[in-house]
Amino acid sequence: MTDAANPPSNPHPEPAPGSGGYGFPPGPPGQGGGYGFPSGPSQQGGYGYPAGGDGYGYGYPQQGQQPNPYQQQDAGGQWPPAQSAQSGISSTPQPDWEAMADRSAAERRKKRLWMLGGGVTVLALLAGGGTFFLLGDDSEGPGGADAQPSTSASPEPGDSKSPAGYTATVEGDATLLRDSYGKTGIRLGPDFQLGPLGKRFQIVGKGNANSYAQSAEPVVDVTKSFTVTARVYSSGTKGSRIAVSQGDGESFSFELGVNEVGGKQAWIFRVQTGDKGAAATTRTVTAEGPTVLKTPTMLMATYDAEKKTIALYVEGKKAGETTQVPPIWQAPGPLQLGRSKHHNIWTGAWQGALHNIKIYDTAFTPEQAAAYKEGKLGPEPKPAHAWLLT
Asked: On the CB side of 258, how many CA atoms lie within 13 Å of its CA?
């Protein structure tokens, strides 16, 4: 292996009269390319370029014979070029001090370029080993219009990981979101991409059929009380946009996200109480007042199995509640991010960003919801599952 700072030393031939010196073609400027450029009408390759005709420049194989790669043949294929008998000049070569100086300067430039190139390569390798990027469409990827504005990161209650050391994905698998409290990873679909958010991460969907993620198994026991919360940023201008749901059969068990109500977008929390997914067997809580489009929002949905109520909180404040809710139908299938199942059809493709997704095995009270929003909930209750903490 050759040291990049000390390129191999090879003997260089003495340039002939009329030559341009090391790295330059002989003859007038019109006959050959300069340093690093292809030659002109003579069809000879400059340094690093293949020559026309039968020869190649430095670094390319020769056809037939292989002359010294540091030398460039003249149009007649001879080196040194033949002297004219009428010139009256002796054929004995004389030292060309200007050419030798040019050759020395060219060699010093070459060494500097090698050293610079080696340094850039090392920096690129170091950077590639420390970070990774999942790149998508510039207008909709993690740094595009659908990504929410970066915010400063701060540890969540119960999160022992520091912001600098937090990892969003399972080690060795950049498409599997790590569960910080449980053991259930969430697999990212092709168009749900991981992107930066301050010192931590978010996932960004493009609003198409591939903008989803799902766990390997159900995460929420809908027969008991639970709380689902997520920080969301929706850039979808119309239609249904579901941030979190559960079930992949004929219908969902619950869904949390955006829906159009009275021709306007609104935050919604909906549960299904029948196994066929009929509208008559769903129960919904709607928050019609807050702005939805391109507004970073903390959503929280609760189900109290004892009181038979569902509630929706927006930014820590109760937006609505529905009582006398029948038992929620336990739909088959895992937790979903970015979509929901309606009558065997996937709907609500998420366009925008999601992060700080948590599941609790208890129904939060209004006081707990407000404390959670302010970061003052304390160590209890602890999440059963959590992904993309910020």
From this structure: 28
Bridging pattern class, strands 282-287 and 345-347: unpaired
Q: Report helix, strand or coil for 382.
A: coil
Which is nearest to 301 in space by CA: 364, 387, 379, 383?
Answer: 364
Structure tokens at 322: 């529905």
Q: Is the peptide bond before 61 cis (omega within 30 degrees of 0)?
A: no
Reported as a single tens digit per residue, the pLDDT across 303-345 is: 999 999 999 999 999 999 999 999 999 999 999 999 999 999 9
Tell me, what's the pLDDT at 116? 55
Give the single-character DSSP code of 293: B
* Rounded Cα distance, 111 and 153, in Å: 45
Q: Are strands 186-188 and 173-177 parallel, antiparallel or unpaired?
A: antiparallel
DSSP 33: -
Residues in the chain with pLDDT < 70?
1-105, 107-164
Count CA within 13 A, CB hemisphere, residue 50: 7
Distance CA 121, CA 46 (A): 25
Tokens of 81: 């070029």
How far apart (Å, rounded) are the C-alpha atoms in residues 220 and 330?
10
With residue 176 as reference, give the H or E element that holds it.
Answer: strand 173-177
Q: How far apart are CA 373 and CA 313, in angstroms?
A: 10
Which residue, among 319, 306, 342, 323, has the nearest Cα to 268 in the 3D structure?
319
Beta-strand relationship, 297-304 and 226-234: antiparallel
